[in-house]
Amino acid sequence: MANYNLQSNEFMILRTEELSRPGSNSNNYELILTNINIVFITGRGSRNGQTTKIFPLSQIKLFNGSPQVLINIQSGYPERVDIYFTNGQESFHFYSKKEANRWAESIKQVLTGTLPEGTTNKLMAIPGTEIVAATLKDTFDTVKDVFGVKSKGSNNMQNVIVTIKCVGCGASLAGVQGRRIKCKYCDTDQSL
Hints:
Elements: E1 12-16, E2 19-20, E3 29-34, E4 37-42, E5 51-56, E6 62-63, E7 66-67, E8 69-72, E9 79-85, E10 88-94, H1 97-112, H2 129-147, E11 161-165, E12 172-176, E13 180-182, E14 189-191
């Protein structure tokens, strides 16, 4: 593998050296798919050094939720995968139809988090999604508590929202009855 350092939150998904570029006779390439980028490396192992181009997956165009990653079949040429970015297009030739399909589907899977029909393997979720989901759930639960919203099937008594005047400055304060709050104007701590 060529010299490419993964970011701390970046994971290798797919890699190949079996490709070429349209209009080039060289085959000294490497293509890497991670959960964040497509990395294209030229000149690996050459005296002139290698060149690395990074294409962020976040810049791939979507149409109706579908990533614009298309297989272009031309008679007499290798299978080509065209990837449409917000700032242009990149194309890669693969030496087999199977490899071209594998790359196109893998890129789509990473972007959408889905697998093709009939596939039973699970695609690894983007790191940190569980933390974000748990944080959002906690936030929604807190908001529901503050505004007295009951969850379906909940037997808890509904919280009562009250409005009072601050004992320190007279500003209007609102919240759940029985809770302690601090006035945002004068910092007086009081019970609702």
